[in-house]
Amino acid sequence: xxxxxxxxxxxMSRIVKHNGTVYLCGQTAASDPxxxxxxxTKRCLEKVETLLSQAGSSVNQxxxxxxxxxxxxxxxxxxxxxxxxxxxxxxxxxxxxxxxMARPDILVELSVTAAY
Length: 116
Description:
The chain has about 120 residues and is of the alpha+beta class. It contains 2 helices and 6 strands.
């Protein structure tokens, strides 16, 4: 079975494809301290769409998404953006957890698995 790694660095690959499944590295918004949880979520989801397309997949083929947010007080605001984004597609399995982020300006990070 072949494993395809796309945009690899010394630390990670942005996309890994194996056996009909695509795995994306954690997606965060570009660093702009003025962005709130909704803007960061929107930008993360745009990046997810781009990477899925690059991998030969799409939002319609999502299998699982884990959402990490810095503070659960932002859960409802993040869900507003998520719900609008996912409204017209089959829903993936999903988990959302509060987590300490790598940098204090990161409010949300997505870990995505999809079929291709």
